[in-house]
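Many introductory courses stop at the sequence. We go one step further.
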Amino acid sequence: MKPSILVILRERDLEIYKKLYETNKYNLIVLGQEQPLLEENGIKTEKLEDFASMGQTDRSTVTAQQICNQLQGVVQEQDFQEQFVFNGHNFFEDVKEGFIQSLMTQIPSEVMLIDAFDNLISQRNIKLVIVWTDVANWTKTITRAAQKHTIPVLQIYHGYGYYYDVGNTESVVYADKVVAGGKKRIEWAGLYGQEKKIVVTGNPYLDVYKKMKKKVNKKETCKQFGLDPKKPIVTFGSTWTNDRQIWKRDAEWLDLVYRTFLKAFKKLRSNNPDIQLLIKLHYVQKGQGDKYKEIASQEGIDDAVVIDENLEEALYICDALVTFESSIIIDALMLEKPVLVLDFNETLTRRSFLKEYPFVFAADEKELEKGLEKVVLNKEYRKTIKAQKKKIDEGFNYLNDGKAIDRIIKVMDSMATEAKPVREQSKEDILADSYYESFGPMIYDCVPSKLKKVLHVSCGNGVLGRKLKEKGIEEVYGIVQDKDQAKEAKKHLNSVIEGDIETLDLPYSNDFFNGIIFSDVLEDIRDPWSYFKNMARYLKQTGIIICSIPNVANIQLLISLLQGRWEYRDYGMLKRDHLRFFTLNEIPKMFEDAGLEIEEIKPFRIPVHPSIAQVGKAIAESKIATQTFLQNCDALQYIVIAKKKKRKKK
């Protein structure tokens, strides 16, 4: 039997399914919801759900109900609900119904999928798992389950990366490799030290537009939609909501913005009567055309055309696109279409990369009116888009040669061919790799491969040290207090000393190491200042010190304080064994007292919710905080790189 690949993609990835099937190298396992479309296109597959144990769905539903029953008591507790209070409003009632509903739907399906996956790998020779994103709960679960068995995971990244500036769960790559559309994607992932996972292939979704002139006849398409090809067309791209309680407020807000747009469109058309309106619904809004047409009619636009399919055609025939925070803004740029982004929450404008490209933003009704006029009527503005076409192509679709899928298949084939035999990872392996994923890549990238001897203080299970040796470091030594971690680290490092880091009598001579790494350790020591100064003597004059230090002046900690909370936990900034806390102001003095000279301080920034960003904005407006705080309040850690001060000549 042929080796198998588990493919979890979407309808939009049909061409990838086709190309993979045509290779005739692999048996394809897919989700049941995708199987009918694939069968229609002659693609034979097996269904993942068919591998689930008998009665697993029923058992999972019972488990979900039991968990929900337990949570009912927890969610009624005042301490729990206080976590949802912001600006005097308790948002818990807004999310409660959706929270419970999510549990009742997600837990059974996720448990069933994991059960099916565990059975699958015992019955099929799985060489690769492909997911369209690895950050949704269930796809991340599948990703982790595959990696537990050392099966490689490839993520076909579906977005364009503009989440990275404000931070989103997508800022962490869990998969082993990610195929990316263009060079810009490397820059975004580089912020998180994960660029080595990325392979730039071009974007198959954007390749579609390379063939649009041959594929689409504008005259015929306009006739199909009931539009006049000789008159200007504005396409309005809606965004998605669902019927859960948590989203109802968002749905009302989106309707309000939609009506505001319609008023601005009507005003523009009062002087330009030929302009036509095409409304393209998000695919999850299929069947809601009558609602959108009715709202348009209420606002005095009786001839609006509403469609819920044919996105590419809707963009191709239009003269300008108006939409929300959506990936189709890039699609439109690929077609050299003017784009007006409705940013009434004022979040996108803070994402610096967007300013490199010719988008027009509207944060209120007046800006919307001006912006609409600009994208529809301003010919000079249109010229700026054409002038940046090459930059747009390189940023988002690599060579823009229509061959992205061929390159993606090559990456898939390579990963499947190189896949190791299935092996259960130990719990220690998983925990160690999880720690490395958090901060290891940033430290790893800071260590020059030419170093001969490196000491890792608080080396954990030795994962970082192992990777440094693979990088080319000749000898890596470790110090760790935990007995089990020391046992594991000894498998990877040249030498590991076990004991109290602060009181150990080290057997090394002065100037012994070319590099010393302190990863999340200074905050655990009673007297980090004296300890750090003492440890610096083991560093050669030409060596470097790399230190990761938590930033206590973090905006999320500040908000906890404002809410009257300072709660120690088993992990994170307020880990129970943390004794000392540092801000950016204290760090330089500690290094100076140790006879060290800082070369660089790199902040490790974390995603923050827009509501938290608003707190930072309010603090900035109050002028209470320093510029240093405002520039670094989203930093979770600082990676500090330093060297010894030059010795004075006698």
